[in-house]
Amino acid sequence: MRGKTRRMAVLSLLSAIGFLLMFIEIQLPMFPMFLKLGISEIPALVGATLFGPLAGVIVELIKNILHGILYSQDSMGVGELSNFIAGSTFVVVSVWFMKLMRESKLGYWVGTITGTIVMAAVMGIANYFIFIPAYGVLLNKSVPEIVAWSQLANSSITSLWALILYAVLPFNLIKGVIEAIITYPIYQRLRPIIKTVSQ
Fold first, then answer.
1. What does this protein do (predicted)?
2. How far apart are CA 91 and CA 88, in angstroms?
3. Count of structural domains, the chain
4. How many distinct helices (H) and strands (E) make up the chain?
5. CB 113 within 8 A of CB 101
6. Does pLDDT of 182 surpass 70?
7. Three state DSSP letters for 141-153
8. Bridge partner residues of 27 (DSSP)
9. Which of 5, 50, 115, 133 has the fewest CB atoms nearer than 10 Å to its CB?
10. Cα-based distances in Å from 161 to 83, 102, 165
11. 84-102: pLDDT as tens digits
């Protein structure tokens, strides 16, 4: 019971940090305005590497619920659902491969790179069929209008498929790689401390 309480406390702290990191976003050149680079998956990845994939999903869920309730009630949860699916996919796939390779240094990089690729593929499909049409409804715009708006950032975006190919896919690849690079030294430094708390 004591170990479970401590683990819940650590996951709550990581969820709070993830929520705060959702407000730190950078606009990248050549990408539409609605794609902003953030690093809020880092606490979930740290939690998942320490306590298992489900812990990372819990962190993702809590941070997005908090963000939806406290910040973006008007978005109908579309942005939060997108962030949750992307983050959970990245975390679960990454950690599954890490565990498969016995949490070695090579396993970390194989895991996070694989997680990044899978996340990009999943979000490409999800944006094509779900999220971009949903954003269109929220913004009272058609999908062609969103494509035209996105073309202002990148002239290669001439269709919805081009938007996925030239924006959504590379954006998620960049995001995953950056978060993996940032997380590695943080995870290595905090792991002994957090593991003692979780026992």
1. Probably a riboflavin-binding protein that interacts with the energy-coupling factor (ECF) ABC-transporter complex.
2. 5
3. 1
4. 9, 2
5. no
6. yes
7. CCHHHHHHHHHCC
8. 36
9. 5
10. 21, 38, 6
11. 999 999 999 999 998 898 7
**Bridge partners of residue 26, in order along the sequence:** 37
What CATH number should be reported for the domain holding residue 188? Answer: 1.10.1760.20
* Residue 48, both tokens: 């998942």
d(CA 166, CA 170): 6
How far is residue 112 from each of residues 15, 87, 176, 179, 184, measured CA to CA in Å?
20, 12, 7, 9, 10
Cα 131 from Cα 148, distance rounded (Å):
17
| Tokens representing residue 37 in the block | 């680079």
Quick one: CA torsion of 114, 116, 119, 120, rounded to 10 degrees?
Answer: -110
- Contacting residues for 193 by C-beta, under 8 A, at least 6 apart: none
Please measure the distance between the N-terminal and C-terminal CA atoms of the chain and give it in whole angstroms.
10
Q: Dig out the tokens for 143 from the structure.
A: 């999908």
What's this model's pTM, rounded to 2 decimal places? 0.92
